Q: What sequence folds into this?
């Protein structure tokens, strides 16, 4: 069942302050968090979080189309890493 | 660039009685598997693939003879299909094959070896490199210009600038 709209998105409060501080600093930093349940808010766009998957903190670079999803969706807890085959990466 | 094989797909179960096979493609666009020319199996035999439907293909051997019947197709189940790295088209500027990044030596800004790229993660939130280090936990670095300022594909090295880490404790952890 979907969450009631009147409640607004859930996000652990302590993330907001850290995100604001990180945005202001402009440094190359990764914010390590355990809060996989928090919703990605527009103010997190452009920041990089290290989201704990029970084993390590996987880097999650927040982009606009991730807003509304949960942090945990981008940090899988299983070990399958996929096949590289002809897949390419570009430096973000 | 050293020539090495890259896993591109695997043969699945037979389809029907005329030698068709399910083929699981690992390429970005599954249909592209047929565009890389002859595919090699673990024994070095070359196979030519032609799609006959969604995920169903005909495999022909080096002489151009297709797999004749279901019994022959069953023998190919679980066969891994590779291409030589040299057959992949050159990537665009500032674009890298994940297969090329794996195994690269990571150096710090001073040129000292940090470790070796063991895994490239990409779960929809940007690519990141997992660097194995001797006597230390693996280092996870986002594949960004700030953290990986230079990549030398020919020398198989890359320079990493690990980001500063900010730990955010949740209430339960902060209370401990």
A:
């Amino acid at each position: 069942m979907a969450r009631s709209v009147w409640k607004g998105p859930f996000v652990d409060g302590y993330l907001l302050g850290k995100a604001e501080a990180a945005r202001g600093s402009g440094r190359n930093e990764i914010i390590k968090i355990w809060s996989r349940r928090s919703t990605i808010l527009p103010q997190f766009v452009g920041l990089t979080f290290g989201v704990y998957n029970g084993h390590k903190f996987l880097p999650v670079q927040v982009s606009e189309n991730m807003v509304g999803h949960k942090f945990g969706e981008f940090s899988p807890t299983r070990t399958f890493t996929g096949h590289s085959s002809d897949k390419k990466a570009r430096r973000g | 660039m050293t020539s090495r094989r890259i896993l591109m797909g695997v043969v699945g179960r037979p389809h029907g009685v005329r030698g068709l096979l399910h083929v699981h493609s690992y390429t970005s666009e599954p249909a592209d598997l047929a565009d890389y020319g002859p595919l090699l199996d673990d024994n070095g035999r070359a196979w030519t693939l032609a799609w006959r439907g969604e995920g169903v293909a005909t495999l022909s051997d080096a002489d151009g003879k297709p797999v004749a019947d279901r019994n022959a197709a069953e023998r190919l189940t679980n066969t891994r299909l590779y291409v030589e790295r040299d057959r992949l088209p050159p990537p665009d500027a500032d674009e890298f094959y994940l297969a090329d990044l794996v195994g690269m030596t990571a150096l710090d800004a001073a040129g000292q070896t940090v470790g070796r790229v063991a895994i490239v993660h990409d779960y929809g939130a940007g690519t990141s490199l997992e660097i194995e280090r001797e006597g230390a936990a693996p280092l996870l670095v986002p594949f960004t210009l700030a953290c990986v300022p230079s990549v030398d594909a020919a020398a198989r090295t890359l320079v990493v600038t690990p980001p500063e880490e900010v730990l955010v404790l949740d209430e339960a952890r902060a209370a401990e």
Remarks:
- The longest strand of chain A covers residues 29-33.
- The first helix of chain A runs from residue 13 to 25.
- Residues 17 and 27 of chain A are 16 Å apart (CA to CA).
